[in-house]
Records
---
Amino acid sequence: MNTVRKSASRHAQHYRDLVKAYGSPLLVLDPVTVRTQYRELKRALPEVAFFYAVKSLPFTGILRCLADMGSNFDLASSGEVRLMQTLKISARRTIHTHPIKHDDDIRTALRFGCTTFVVDNTDELLKFRPYRRRVGLLVRLCFRSPAAVVDLSRKFGCSAAEAGKLLSLAAGLGIHVKGLCFHVGSQCRDAHRQVEAIDACHTLIRQHHATGAAPISMLDIGGGFPIAYDGAEVDLNAYCAPIRDALARLPVHVRVIAEPGRIISGPAMTSITTVIGKARRDGMNWYYLDDGVYGAFSGQIYDQVRYPLEVFSDAPGRFPSVLAGPTCDSIDIIAEGVGLPELQIGDMVAGHMMGAYTAASATDFNLRPKAKIVVLDRGTEWARTAGRRPLYGVNHPRLAMPGRHPRRKTAGR
Ligand SMILES: Cc1ncc(COP(=O)(O)O)c(C=O)c1O
């Protein structure tokens, strides 16, 4: 169930100004939060090199911001490779971690200069025979994780025994395997899943070294770091403490990397939607918004999370209500049976923590345009749209750039 905060209507003024300038629905990216999340993670795991999981929010605004912070990038498709090329991000800062790839995906990544790939079975390993002199592979292990919202090991990863066989086969074929990797599942609230996985990989690394084979020099601990959708705060430093201890036990020559997505992009984006219609059905107030589960709220279906919502009203009371999306489909419901004050057509509804797996999986079903993404840098009080051309300050004191045009039309973007 989504949590719904009720705020005074004056608190919606900021959102109203943005909608006036850029239209509705909107997704507002806050680079200050991106930078804070990245720094916090770095502080919590200082010895780990981060490769931002582009899939969580493959948007230029966040990628540029992270590139400036020194982040590396985790790619999973040729489309993501092309995005790196467009942004002129060095291939040396990228890894390709999709365990199942078409040969064309491998060649596209190699042409770009990305040489680290992931395999979890023999068929996938054999795809690298033609490129054996040019790649360094990571073998992905499976660690099922009922504690995670999305248990990625259901679909990918091999057992420790199979990993051992893959390492031997690769050595026989002359394919360089530089490391091991895993993903304990996305939005994993139990850090001990990470610890168990690190310890299991540690054992495998020791056993492998004992055979006299070329040493395993890298461990990729994936993503999965959780964020607080339900308001229950996640203390990232405390969460990472047992992970730090487990990593400290690894041999010193093992370089540790991670592929965080949600923890960086999730808290950094807010959805702004507008009530476009109302109805009364089965004793409930229905409010139809201009975005829904086919759009930015798609994460409620695919990613199985419920975003914290905020409504703005000075009216007293709360009544059983439904917040529905704009499409013709009845699955397009964001929240059902929630207590809301009486809303009016034109009122704003905000969705918080909506950066990860939202815009990334939004569709244009019914040929409705997807929410426009606006970058709102509180540091510079400056707004840009998703395109490369800057938009000038909107007509609001909190957003206006000194000496800039007070407002320009956004048409054509
Ligand atoms: C291979 C891989 N790496 C990293 C991530 C990012 O995970 P998270 O957003 O949970 O940090 C995912 C998510 O699906 C993934 O599949």
---
Amino acid sequence: MNQKTLLALAKKHGTPLFIVDHNELRKNYALFRKHFPRVQIYYAVKVNSDPAIVKTFYDLGGSFDVASMQEFHTVHENIKKLPAKKRQHFIWDKIIYANPIKPIETLRELDRYKPLVTYDNHEEVKKIAKHAPHAGLALRLRVPNTGSMVELSSKFGALPGEAVDLIQYAHDAGLVVEGLSFHVGSQCTNPENYIQAILLCANIFHESRTRGFNLKLLDIGGGFPAAYDSSVPKVSELAKKINHELNRLFPKDIEILAEPGRFLVASAAHAVSKIIGKAVRNDKLCYYVNDGVYHTYSGVIFDHCRYRMKSFKRGKKRLCAVFGPTCDALDTISLAEQLPDLEIGDYLYSEDIGAYSAASSTHFNGFPPAKVIHINQQTL
Ligand SMILES: Cc1ncc(COP(=O)(O)O)c(C=O)c1O
């Protein structure tokens, strides 16, 4: 998306504006497919649950990782008109409920769809056996998240040493464990995390087999990094290492799944905001814009992500701070941006802000989330 298009859209639709480019979604999806030919792509809906994004991945033949009933229904909207048999097949084959902890109400609602769900502890097995006995299971393992931008291993994941016993426990409860899953942490730039996790899983597959359990699938989760800057390794490099290990350790009949989210959507959205105030504090020029960390820039807080603020105007740059519109001092987008001298009413924009942004935007302080618009929704 070039500057001219962004500016024209901001003038036409107003700000704050969140612009999703569906050509970029399709490009990222194709790139993932190209580099991971063996892997079935389950888009992680939480990363940006906009129904139009889900539809574009659906149209591409994508599968989905959902983690709440609302996300499940967002995907289900696309299949509700299919004949019952086809719809059921889609749910079996293309949806994973990848939240290891599920409320009883959710399990009761899920049971009739017979989905694949993740679990990582004994209590969850008891709940699933009682309230969703038709679900298939994937055991989520705790794996190294070293160096990933967002750590995901402290909350979920069975220890490798407990894995086979947890498979046995589920079996004894009358459930079927289809395979294993893990997550190396979001924005993982350290291939070693994948390598170690895949090796760990191969050992558990082996041990399970000796105990009479034939696991059929391996879900390698998310973690695939967005190219926020030049330090991020190329997906081709990462894929080479991951594919090598998958092919070395898992025969062709083992299904491999992945749950990329950030990789697919981060670069597909840009945000444009307007300068609504300006002040000099402690010798620093401070800009106040009409979008902030309670809104599109929520990733600053929840995703540990930094977004560059860029100007459409040129001029000598100086160190500035950029704040959001609410009364909370936490609403700070950046304390160190290089921006030229701008006027109230001028626009700023950020690129690559499609992941964990609009998804966690709030109405705090009476400021609604940015308007979302979609471009290139139809294939060319
Ligand atoms: C179970 C699961 N799968 C996939 C994802 C998406 O991962 P990523 O942000 O690395 O794309 C997440 C993110 O939290 C997750 O929890």
---
Amino acid sequence: MVYGHTRKHAQSDEPDSYLCLRTQVLKQLDIKCCRFTVATGLYTGYDYNCPAHEGPVFSSSVEQDKENDVTQEKKTQDFGENPLDVRDTDHYKDEYVSGFVDKWDELIDWDGRANSEGDFFIRLLQEHGARKVLDVAAGTGFHSVRLLENGFEVTSADGSPEMLAKAFENGRKRGHILRTVHADWRFLNKSVHDLYDAVICLGNSFTHLHSDNDRRKALAEFYATLRHDGILILDQRNYDALLDHQVQPTHNYYYCGDNVKASPEHIDESLARFRYEFPDKSTFHLNMFPLRKEYVRKLMREVGFQKVTTYGDFKETYREAEPDFFIHVAEKRYIEGENE
Ligand SMILES: C[S@@+](CC[C@H](N)C(=O)[O-])C[C@H]1O[C@@H](n2cnc3c(N)ncnc32)[C@H](O)[C@@H]1O
């Protein structure tokens, strides 16, 4: 199947990237060619005869197309002979295989998750005067769609084309055309040339970065794409509780699907390996880095965020070991004398 790839539009000299959806997807989704201008954040046309898809200019990009091509369906994950050795940032691309992506919505359960988080993120964004939001870990599009439906202007980015295509499809089913950008956080500003009031990185996504250098670079890229007084909202599991107290998270808030089991299979100071089991007995894994809460807060301040407020399971006050998830709100706005 599918999917999208970013590349410079063949017929344009503009220094923008475009998302060209492959013909197969376009047919499948019953839409024509879309051309998305990152700089303006607008779809600029639906033209099935878009010259970018044909002719000599297109064929000169065949090598790049091959490189970006994800048409081969990958249904199963491969962690090699020793899965506990896989502690590598790039591996997320192999973890979100189509078989897992197809099951993701069963795991999170959109209605259940919307009920559990209520209007927490919507309120937070409104309180900070945010209107234009970049969802950098769009996944299957849950937050992008919720925010769109609550009047925000949203761009959905993700490093996994499989996820992005599913997000696009989910958006279409609900009557939206998502503005999608295929981008890895470490090189975000190569593909995103606009400024946003808020960047959101939700669903325990940041934990996919396995080195301190990658985390700093990603945060610096998020910081750069924010307006001068923008905010970053980033969440993470309460790994401190897992590492220090071996507390089993309850998953009441994030993974709301019935009969789906998400459990830590292994945890040490540099690896948290989670196992996801579905009612049909299919299983998948994710190898994450167990982020300590204070470490993330410190990193955020070190890349320039002036103030970081951390919520526990959507509450401002909590006992450290209790929450399943922490939500950090990092403010870029300059605060004189702020010294946490
Ligand atoms: C745990 S999923 C969460 C998806 C969604 N936010 C949710 O809550 O359902 C993590 C997402 O982050 C994306 N991701 C992981 N590492 C990334 C990176 N370095 N750059 C861009 N996206 C990345 C994955 O492709 C995946 O879609």
